[in-house]
């Protein structure tokens, strides 16, 4: 198979979807790899390293789309790319289609096979290709919260951990999954008072066992949330209903009673966001203020720490990319249930329920197509 590695084009997105080490593995398995010029430069992987690994460098995305059987990205294809995608081509990347109607339509029209990293799901419910970026985004969420609490950044001038004789900040994390735990771990390590909310009692029990003493796992419901966000200096949104739009948990009404200069970080923005006032921002202009509360809503947070993220992401995606390349998408999906859950669009048909529900489109069971 010919595998195409595209350069990211979202604002200040510097990750790349395959390291030179990944190219070596592809080539060893008998595949040809074409890499768009400078695709890895933002993560410290120059073109020469890809050539040494056995890849060919192409100048433009159009050439990569024209040549490859499977194209890989980190972020979703942008509108300028929809018409370059060929019928029957495999597109393997983050898609987040339940939050992006134009992209859903663009990919349906392309008649390609679109496999979303974020909906690949193992039998235990874990999301192996979302997990590494959730670890990064969770850890970053606390850093961003701490940064925007500083007075020169428009915050209320509170140090997350406090100091001797002065109480620490209160951090409320909504969602106790991978993002939530990583955010809470960082906030606890810095000495904040941390509440972590989830609706899954087993998960809360687990968090109660493993988290440090300054972390309080709490059952999430609207009245508890209202009470806690009023005390909060930082609120981190980290809920997920896999592949579906995020529920709006922090309402406009709650927001207006929050402390002036407090910060909310909506990590779930890639699934539409879990705060009513959220709208996606970019690394170029990451924040905006509503009712005195700073909103940080960057949909590709890990892009800011591109080298760490590229390595963490490709550690997870490479085995799946190799399986698709080695077997072809149909056989790979027939033999790997986790990968099957990643298939969102096939030949113009939506095969992921969360996406068809989000846009009122017909749903086709993937088993009818393989
Ligand atoms: N903005 C960015 O750059 C990035 C965003 N993300 C996003 O972060 C979100 C969270 O991802 P993960 O932590 O990996 O998911 P996860 O599945 O590990 O955790 C989600 C948690 O939310 C909980 N939950 C669901 N509904 C809830 C509710 N109403 N109240 C409280 N908790 C609730 C679930 O029980 C689960 O424990 C996803 O939307 C993911 O796509 C992930 C990485 C990067
Ligand atoms: C999860 C995701 O969309 C990202 O890492 O950008």
TrEMBL record:
Any GO BP annotation: L-alanine catabolic process
Record's keyword annotation contains Chloroplast: no
Catalytic activity: L-alanine + NAD(+) + H2O = pyruvate + NH4(+) + NADH + H(+)
Binding sites annotated in the UniProt record for substrate: 15, 75
Signal peptide as annotated in the record: none
Statement: the UniProt record of this protein carries the keyword Magnesium: yes
Positions of NAD(+) binding: 134, 198, 203, 220, 239-240, 267-270, 298-301
Family membership: Belongs to the AlaDH/PNT family.
Name of this protein: Alanine dehydrogenase
Species the sequence originates in: Desulfocicer vacuolatum DSM 3385
């Amino acid at each position: 198979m010919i595998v195409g590695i595209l350069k990211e084009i979202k604002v200040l997105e510097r990750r790349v979807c395959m390291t030179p080490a990944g190219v070596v593995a592809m080539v060893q398995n008998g595949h040809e790899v074409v890499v768009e010029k400078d695709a890895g430069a933002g993560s410290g992987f120059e073109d020469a390293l890809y050539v040494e690994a056995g890849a060919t460098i192409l100048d433009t995305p159009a050439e990569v789309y024209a040549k490859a059987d499977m194209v890989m990205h980190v972020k979703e294809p942008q509108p300028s790319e929809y018409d370059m995608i060929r019928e029957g081509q495999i597109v393997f990347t983050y898609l987040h289609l339940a939050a992006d109607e134009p992209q859903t339509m663009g990919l349906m029209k392309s008649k390609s096979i679109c496999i979303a990293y974020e909906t690949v799901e193992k039998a235990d419910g874990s999301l192996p290709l979302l997990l590494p970026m959730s670890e990064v985004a969770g850890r970053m969420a606390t850093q961003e919260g701490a940064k925007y609490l500083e007075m020169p950044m428009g915050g209320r001038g509170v140090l997350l951990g406090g100091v001797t004789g002065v109480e620490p900040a209160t951090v409320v994390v909504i969602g106790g999954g991978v993002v939530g735990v990583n955010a809470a771990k960082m906030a606890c390590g810095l000495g904040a008072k941390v509440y972590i909310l989830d609706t899954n009692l087993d998960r809360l029990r687990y968090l109660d066992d493993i988290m440090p003493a300054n972390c309080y796992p709490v059952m999430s419901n609207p009245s508890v949330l209202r009470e806690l966000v009023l005390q909060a200096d930082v609120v981190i949104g980290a809920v997920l209903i896999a592949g579906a739009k995020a529920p709006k948990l922090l309402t406009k009404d709650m927001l207006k009673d929050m402390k002036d200069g407090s910060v909310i970080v909506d990590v779930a923005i890639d699934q539409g966001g879990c705060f009513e006032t959220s709208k996606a921002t970019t690394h170029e202009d990451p924040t905006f203020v509503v009712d005195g509360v700073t909103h940080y809503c960057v949909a590709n947070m890990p892009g800011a720490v591109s080298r760490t993220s590229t390595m963490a992401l490709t550690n997870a995606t490479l085995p799946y990319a190799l399986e698709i390349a080695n077997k072809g998408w149909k056989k790979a999906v027939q033999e790997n249930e986790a990968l099957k859950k990643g298939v969102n669009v096939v030949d113009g048909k939506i095969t992921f329920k969360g996406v068809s529900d989000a846009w009122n489109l017909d749903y086709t069971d993937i088993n009818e197509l393989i």
